[in-house]
Amino acid sequence: MAFFTDVPKIKFEGPDSKNTLAFRHYDESEIVEGKTMKEHLRFAVCYWHTFRGTGSDPFGPGCNLRPWEDGTDSVEMAIKRVGVAFEFFEKLGVPYYCFHDRDVSPEGKNLKETNANFDKVAKALKDEQQRTGVKLLWGTANLFSNPRFMHGAATSCNADVFAYAGAQVKKCLEVTKELGGENYVFWGGREGYSNLYNTDLKRELDHLAKFFHLAVDYKKKIGFGGQFLIEPKPKEPTVHQYDFDVANCVAFLRGYGLADSFKLNVETNHATLAGHTMMHELAYASMCGMLGSIDANRGDLLLGWDTDQFPTDYYLTTQCMLVILGQGGLANEKGGGGVNFDAKVRRESFEPIDLFHAHIGGMDAFAVGLKLAAQIRKEGVLSDFVKQRYASWDTGIGAKVEAGQAKFEDLETYMLEKGDAAKNVSGRQEMLENIINRYVR
Ligand code: XUL
Ligand code: CO
Fold it and tell me: How far apart are CA 206 and CA 280, in angstroms?
């Protein structure tokens, strides 16, 4: 049964098209830096916002018009919804989707029934994946909605909740493997604190690390070949989330001997909540060899929370793609990461057609970012400047320091002889910003 009967398959019509249900920039077969746009961008639709978002906010209930919904959270409805979702993925032309276990299948009266529900829906998902060729970029477990997780999951003060969370992740790993998921994501959910008066910080962090080690053990045991990803976020729902930002996650993973088993899934709105730009977070993760995948969205400068809007800003997408192309992309021989739209339509955009407009805009914005970043790289305007800026490290004293061949005594001898440091040269920020505006226009 078709649900989006008034929407055709979305096609590329070129930049001059006035058709609001067409791509103006995303031509999946266009070659950029030797690969198709489809291969570079590896777009994914997220199940939670797109198929479970109701439009509710702290001031009012859901108001989204979703004619296929029957108002129940039954397994039957979950299976029907799978059909709706895959029709959407196909019409939009995305190669991937992502889910939380509880987005796709409902909780039962106990864990056994919950797992049985998940198996039934997973079968429907697998059938639709096979029918359409749409693949699972990543799965994740929802360890934050059910009230049992009020104090966190792996970091709960209640050891039984840690046990429940472990059992839930075990099952979700099995299903993600069964569905060929290319990654598995851990977002901190309620892993954090709201007040230190009631919190044993060290114990909670030790438990979080223990949980990740157990997950790594089980991944190896079942031979799940996907990549584990941690998704940093500084706050919301808790005042302080333990997976605060990229640098914090890298330090945590290194400190607990987990760095080889994880990469990061970096989200734009989480970066801005942490007081960073997305480019900073991506560059940091990439520099550590740990940039795995991205959750593409944006916040609103006038609001201080995770608004998860669709990305439309060409500077943002160009900056993302500069870092991603700089590390040779998100794909690897086993699959790899992608650009997942962890984004939701505004409450006012309550009709099903708005889901298409939102994704088309996000995909086009990333297509533009990809093309502009490739052009900037081809003409070498940033890389040449940066290389020149650090040229003093390529020879002489700089090269000696980098090679570990200079002690403080050598630096003193060198400077006593020279008298003073060589003159500084301008960083030319404004000139570079003007150059970038030659491309983004
Ligand atoms: C929450 C968030 C999550 C993760 C998956 O802010 O981004 O949806 O992407 O749990
Ligand atoms: Co996210």
Answer: 28
